[in-house]
């Protein structure tokens, strides 16, 4: 197996970003306004953190917006290297984002439920650079669009990974105890985690150390 890239999400300060990078994160996630879930920070703080990290580190703006113009305006303020769309959007939105924000990388989140998630992934892959497979629920009255701390059916994620031609990140409830199983089952390009390296809402150096120690065993 190839060692996956590691994205640490829900970063809330420059200090947390530095800590994640110190232990080996190749990307950090910065969460803007969401209907639910952890890690939400202001757009001003997202811009501040994104501008502080080394250029080799990818910075992901997580957006729950679904209107192209609103997403473009938000990204131009936050200035991250990558845009992570956590809800479903229409294909024409992805096309416009690609045109207006090039060369910013586009990541579409697929909240894995059943076989229908494979079709959803195949329908959008040609319009984005990366797919991120997570465990949210868009059908709830208050949508869950990430940060649930739950795993999903990795056999579906593996089918998606095999069916698409773009890189795939795996997210949802991953931690030091299950990352080796996740990597073996899905063989993703990258692993994305938030709660798995946090304690009492704060990024934990101890949990980061344990997680990256396990990654070395892949």
Write up what this structure looks like.
By secondary structure, the chain is an alpha/beta fold. It has a single domain (5-215), classed as Aldolase class I (TIM Barrel). It has eight helices and ten strands. The chain has helices at residues 14-23, 43-52, 68-78, 91-101, 116-124, 154-163, 179-186, 205-215; strands at 5-8, 27-31, 58-63, 82-85, 105-111, 130-134, 168-170, 190-193, 198-199, 202-203. It has an eight-stranded parallel beta barrel with strand order 1-2-3-4-5-6-7-8, surrounded by seven helices. The N and C termini lie close together (7 Å). The mean pLDDT is 96.
Per-chain topology:
Blueprint: E1 5-8, H1 14-23, E2 27-31, H2 43-52, E3 58-63, H3 68-78, E4 82-85, H4 91-101, E5 105-111, H5 116-124, E6 130-134, H6 154-163, E7 168-170, H7 179-186, E8 190-193, E9 198-199, E10 202-203, H8 205-215
Descriptors:
218 residues; alpha/beta; TIM Barrel; 8 helices; 37% helix
Q: What count of structural domains?
A: 1
Q: Could you state the order of secondary-structure elements as H and E? A: EHEHEHEHEHEHEHEEEH
What's the CATH class, please?
Answer: Alpha Beta
Helix content: 25-40%
Report on the biggest sheet.
8 strands, parallel, barrel
**Distance between termini?**
7 Å
As for the CATH topology, it is TIM Barrel
Oligomeric state of the chains in view: single chain
Mean pLDDT across the residues is 96
Q: How many DSSP-defined strands?
A: 10
Q: Over all CA atoms, what is the radius of gyration? A: 16 Å
By secondary-structure content and strand pairing, the structural class works out as alpha/beta
Report the total helices. Answer: 8
CATH H-tier superfamily: Aldolase class I
Categorize the overall geometry: globular
- CATH architecture classification: Alpha-Beta Barrel
Give the uncertain stretches in residue-range form. Answer: none
What fraction strand?
15-25%
Write out the strand line-up for the largest beta sheet, numbering strands in chain order.
Answer: 1-2-3-4-5-6-7-8
